Predict the structure.
Amino acid sequence: MSFHATLVVMAAGMGSRFGGLKQLEPIGRNGEVILDFSVYDALEAGFDKVVFVIKHEIEEDFKRIVGDRIAKKVKVEYAFQEVNDLPEGFTAPADRTKPWGTTQAILCCKDLVNEPFIVVNADDYYGKSAFSKMYNYLKEGTGNYAMVGFRLANTLTENGSVARGVCQTDGNGYLTDIVERTKIAMRDGKIMFTEDEGESWTELSKGSTVSMNCWGFSGMMMTELRNRFSAFLDRNKDNMLKCEYFLPFVVDDLLKEGKISVKVMDTTEKWYGVTYKEDKQLVVDAIRQKVIDGVYPENLW
């Protein structure tokens, strides 16, 4: 019996810190964007379908710049993350423009994904081993969930702060706790985070395991997300203008309830991403070096 697995690429964010549609910023010599390399690595690992989560307003540009050429190599489908796409009984505030977080992004795929799947950000470079490890684990069919765990020091930018899910694992490599730190930065040679807008800072170990939103799930995750998203909105009726519901929150709740186990796939890959405009040249140079080293062909597609 053949095994099918899907790559879900979250590409609906507008890149507020970057100042534009960073998902569509070319970083390869032939106009490739970061997600081109993620899709290439996923197909090489064995994934046989790609679902892009985007906004309707970028659909034409996205398909022209990225989607149409990838669709020549693999089955491609689209899900649309919109502010007003909420469960029955909930209404978005009239002046809310930002989507509701990564939980909503994955829920947008509920009618397209029934098989095992992994989730990645469009604007993060994960490296080949991330996709091969995830595919092989999902193919084992254990029923457990999984995530790729990066070393914190390999996921930073010199140009500002980043948000990372800081993880704890047990002796067998299973996730026990994940805490979202929304402002991590280098300060005086140390990796620090703040929770009070810089009034105080706490050091983190350079070797800390962090999530970069590379998750592996069974199709049953959609049911959990649907139920929990409605409950989240109900709890935040007084904060509907700004509240967001992120995948790590859902995973952490499920862990604490004993409903799931999550295998952490360690990787020493170096993350690359265009969080800020100043990051772009670093990514361009890194990808070019990988082409020179033979990691990728000169013409990706």
Summary: The chain has seven helices and 13 strands. Helices lie at 34-45, 59-70, 102-107, 128-140, 221-235, 247-256, 280-292.
